[in-house]
Design goal:
It is built from four helices and five strands. The protein has helices spanning 12-25, 32-43, 96-110, 125-134; strands at 3-6, 49-55, 61-70, 79-87, 116-117. Strands 1-2-3-4-5 form a five-stranded mixed β-sheet, sandwiched between helices. A hairpin with an 8-residue loop joins strand 3 (61-70) and strand 4. Keywords: Acyltransferase, Transferase.
């Protein structure tokens, strides 16, 4: 059985290969400095980004999830944005992704958030199969403007 737990400062060595797998899946490269900054934010209890680790029966890390909350104009309570979700490819279809999403939903509900939402690529059909079973597809289309920073 998979266990989902909060990331701990000692987890960097098991988190980072999953993080790198996530970035590779999305064909993205980040600097070592950004990865270190992301890690430090995830384990800093004063920073408003949270992370959890999925661990299998043998103690192997098999998935990660990161989320944050933000104020909203349509709600008095903050919305919860599930920003990153990755499951080791060898563990896909075994319920790890579902468990990670449920962990975030439970956390968000306990913290008064009225909803959890996330984005994925249209072509991410495997993950979308899960998402269609555990959430409502809203029909919104995502746009962004990249700024020079």
């Amino acid at each position: 059985m998979t266990t989902i737990r909060a990331l701990l400062p000692a987890d960097r060595d098991v988190w980072e290969p999953l993080w790198r797998g996530y970035l590779e899946f999305y064909e993205t490269e980040l600097s070592e400095e950004q990865t270190a900054l992301t890690w430090n934010r995830l384990v800093d209890p004063q920073f408003p980004i949270h992370g959890a680790l999925a661990v299998d029966e043998g103690g192997t890390a098999v998935g990660i999830v990161h989320w944050l909350t933000h104020a909203a104009t349509w709600s008095a309570e903050p919305y919860c944005y599930l920003e990153d979700l990755f499951v080791d490819p060898s563990q896909r279809g075994a319920g790890v992704g579902r468990a990670l999403i449920a962990h975030v939903a439970d956390w968000a509900e306990a913290h008064g958030s009225p909803k959890v939402y996330w984005l994925t690529q249209e072509t991410n059909t495997t993950a979308r199969g899960l998402y269609d079973r555990v959430a409502t597809r809203t029909g919104y289309v995502h746009y962004q403007i990249g700024l020079g920073a």
